[in-house]
Amino acid sequence: MDLDMLNMFVIASGTLAIPILAFVASFLLWPSALIRIYYWYWRRALGMQIRYANYDDYQFCYSYRGRPGYRPSILMLHGFSAHKDMWLSIVKFLPKNLHLVCVDMPGHEGTTRSDLDDYSISGQAKRIHQFVECIKLNRKPFHLVGTSMGGNVAGVYAAQYPEDICSLTLICPAGLPSTTDSKFIKQLRELQESKRIDRIPLIPSTPEEMADMLKLCSYVRFKVPQQVLDVSGASVLASAIPDCHVYILENCGHSVVVERPRKTANLILEFLALLHSIDNNKKQA
User: Fold this and answer.
1) Residue 3 to residue 22: CA distance in whole angstroms
2) In the predicted model, is pLDDT for residue 56 greater than 50?
3) 202: helix, coil or strand?
4) What ranges in the chain are assigned the alpha helix state H?
5) What angle do CA 102, 249, 239 make, to 5 degrees?
6) Which of 62, 116, 207, 258 has its CA 20 to 30 A from that of 89?
7) Which has the closest alpha carbon to 65: 37, 93, 35?
8) Sign of the torsion angle spanned by Cα atoms 231, 235, 240, 244
């Protein structure tokens, strides 16, 4: 190999090595920055835009796509310790002409976090109502979607502000009584009895605790058939809500939005299409 070829090889290797080393260094030293870049790119690719809304001195952060139209807008409420971007995997499979709004729940991500705020389920429902009024989402009844803690808030919201919504989707909602206690509920009771609130499974502080949380919530990734909430609670909704449709997804844990996004999006769209068809039939009758 002559000197010129060797120099070209060294330059080419250096050119490739610099971005690789930068990526490795970023992954090791600033992993949160990479995650933010990842979500920024995903939002941009899906056409989601970030906005802020203020109610007095309280700030809500949310993302949205599209504008209100003849079809109901969709408001999505995420679960505990998550954020608005967890819905991106669902947004990917929803039509671009739907008006979508994903808000950071009180105390999460870009929404105001204050020790003085009321983080009870009814307190969060009140805050979400303030957000809805801020962006005037309730000019027309909208479809409300909530998962886990967000599902609990969504259910209470529907009960407290029924005039705001036209329909409701609850994905693994927390707060339902069930005939069987899940492993997660048993853990919480043990922690409550021992008063060790620093060991809440959904607030990991080490890589090991993070792995345990994912195993607790996910079926697919770790092949662990566990879930945070027991499915027996679904019968409570089925018996209490008129025209309720219940779907139990096989091989899926608590993180339904992440594990089965396409199926979840299709079920939401099928439900909305069914409601639209029923409304049209009533108008024609």
Assistant:
1) 28
2) yes
3) coil
4) 3-29, 31-46, 88-91, 121-134, 149-160, 183-194, 207-217, 234-240, 256-259, 261-284
5) 85
6) 207
7) 93
8) positive
178 by Cβ neighbours in 10 Å (0-12 / 13-18 / 19+) ranks as: middle
The pLDDT score that the predictor gives to residue 5 is 60
Q: Determine how β-strand 74-77 pairs with β-strand 58-65.
A: unpaired
Adjacency order of strands within the sheet including 100-103: 49-55, 58-65, 100-103, 74-77, 142-147, 165-171
**Confidence at 250, pLDDT banded by 50, 70, 90:** confident
What's the mean per-residue pLDDT of the chain? Answer: 83
Query: Distance from CA of residue 200 to its chain's centroid?
Result: 19
Angle at 149 between CA 148 and CA 150, to 5 degrees: 90
Residue with tokens 């029924």: 162
Bridge partners (DSSP) listed for residue 61: 52
Task: Count the neighbouring beta carbons within 10 Å of the beta carbon of residue 8.
Answer: 12
- Using an 8 Å Cβ cutoff, are 265 and 90 in contact? yes
